[in-house]
Specification:
With 123 residues, the protein is an alpha+beta fold. The protein is built from three helices and six strands, in the order ββαββββαα.
Length: 123
């Protein structure tokens, strides 16, 4: 896989491959890569456009978006997606998992995240 096959930009929420690194650099320096960001107490759920294909094999759909959960500045979980819409949906799902746990256990977000992350570990 050539470097240029890995470089992408956003055009109206659509990922578009870049022809060369100069095009990518220009696009990257000015694009808003944030899909969504949600704070639940001291837990931050952030979803962004990566601008680089994280598909390690290079076969199939490019992996261009990422949702991460941060607690006390540390990364605790990550999910990746190919499309903006998948990233939006994945972000909303992660936020709802934490909120749901908060309601059920009547705890703050960091405690809720601990319970949610333990379930991920069992999958």
């Amino acid at each position: 896989m050539a470097l240029t096959d890995m470089l992408w930009k956003l055009v109206n929420r659509r990922a578009v491959p870049c022809d060369d690194i100069v095009e990518w650099g220009r696009a990257y320096s000015s694009m808003d890569r944030r899909v969504a960001e949600t704070w639940l107490d001291d837990v931050r759920v952030s979803t962004v456009f990566l601008a680089v294909d994280y598909n390690p094999i290079g076969r199939g759909d490019p992996v261009l978006f990422e949702t991460m959960v941060f607690v006390a500045g540390k990364t605790h979980h990550m999910r990746r997606y190919s499309l903006w819409e998948e990233a939006e949906s994945g972000h909303a799902e992660m936020v709802e998992l934490i909120r749901s746990e908060m309601r059920a256990a009547r705890v703050k977000a960091a405690e809720a995240w601990t319970a949610v992350s333990e379930r991920f570990g069992r999958q």
